[in-house]
Amino acid sequence: METTIINILSGLRPEFDFSEDVDFMEEGMLDSFDIVNLVTALDTEYGISIDGMDILPTNFSSVSKIVALLQKNGVKS
Amino acid sequence: MNLKFRHKKITGILTILPENEVKFEDEMDQYNFSPAKSLKLKMAMGYNTHRVAKEGVCASDLCIRGLDYLFEKKLLDKNEIDALILVTQSPDYFMPPTSNVIQGHFGLKQDMICMDINQGCAGFIIGLFQAFMLLEQDEINKVVLLNADVLSPKVSKRDRNSNPLIGDAASVTIVEKSDDSGIIFGNLKMDGTGFDALIIPAGGSRLPASADTAQLHEDAAGNFRSLNHLVMKGDEVFNFVQREVPPMIEQLLSTAGCSREDVDFYMFHQPNKFMLNKLADKLGVPREKMPSNIVENFGNASGVSIPTAIGFNLGTRLTRESLLICLAGFGVGLTWASILIRLENLDFNEIINY
After folding, report:
1. What are the tens digits of pLDDT across the range B16-61?
2. Is residue A49 part of a domain?
3. Which residue from A33, A49, A57 is facing B281, i.e. has the nearest CB?
4. What is the DSSP string of B164-198?
5. d(Cα B73, Cα B57) in Å, to the nearest integer?
């Protein structure tokens, strides 16, 4: 799952290395429009609809946070 | 706040759109996006074509075009209008009320009430509530509800948050007394602590427009706008909508004793496709029952987006069918409001150009 997420993130913002252990939001690697595109891509990839209440910047600040978000929304690891 | 109304009905809805279409692709280079990102956002948010009034066109012009059309087609008799409500955030003047200007233009009778209401995204619902309340009066039998906004001049062309979405439009909705005793259910909430989530900071009394307020500034996301322009805290508005709207709809349906499946269509305010799809999923409503195609075809014209959605998606069906429809508006104020109403056998449900 982590590899898929990193591939999607890299497709959105190819100028950044999303395998680094940094806060994607604090580092300015993702903005709110990237999150819209990311949620759309994750919904399609995993056949889910991430709950709108969960679309908060803090849930997209790292790959592990995104994994936790997907699991909360029904994706099995 | 739960509201109930009896013996009221909507008998016609007309939407008026400026003929001038602006394509997202023609504006992409104004924004701080890569082309690839822009095209992804186009799909997710519904950026495509929006209707923008030509310079000098005001809210009253669109309303007058709509009323002229109805008078000419004999779909509305000017002598029968007992109340004229205009919901707008872009009045022709600070004073007088634009509804009075429209009354004067047509020489409508003096024995009537004109009122402007400053409301936005929930403006269609708020306007209907006001119309229903006026119809409680013995001498008021027919209310013309006008929703109109020409906000495109108030949005910076270099603001990627707002400019691709904004649309100008007006609607005319006829609301009358009815013999039908069916109940129209409503729900309304407001939270003024969020007043600055959607705001035009300058131009009023708090901060008069000046050369200083007209200066463009770049925000953290690379948008350029001045204090005279509309600014939207997109993240806050999104979270507010996802948090507050689903429980409001559940409460509305519960009060009415309806299931989600009983409702034929959910005609909601049209902020963008992504937000509406998330609302539909959260409510467990099939996306085809909650159309999200107004931003991509016409833009978001604030309080006019619901009548536009009804006109575009249901058209003449509503002149011969009976459909149970849930309406919901949410945004500036902050305000969120909903109505469960049966729309049937309307005299008209159309969209025309200005």
Report:
1. 999 999 999 888 888 877 787 778 778 888 889 999 999 999 999 9
2. yes
3. A49
4. TTB--EEEEEEEEE-S--PEEEEEEEE-GGGTTSE
5. 24
Query: Which residue of chain A is at minimal alpha-carbon distance from B234?
Result: A32
Note the pTM of the prediction, 2 decimals: 0.94
Domain annotation covers residue A24: no
Q: What range does the domain containing A52 cover?
A: 1-8+32-77
Q: pLDDT per residue over B174-231, tens digit each?
A: 999 999 889 999 999 999 999 999 999 999 999 999 999 999 999 887 889 999 999 9
In a domain, A42, yes or no: yes
pLDDT of res. B251: 97
**Number of structural domains, chain A?**
1
Q: Is residue A61 part of a domain?
A: yes
Closest C-alpha to B230, from B289, B149, B305, B116? B149
Whether B224 has its CB under 8 Å from any CB of chain A: the answer is: no
Burial (Cβ within 10 Å: 0-12, 13-18, ≥19) of residue B8: buried
Domains of chain B: 1-354 (3.40.47.10)
Nearest CA in chain B to A44: B44
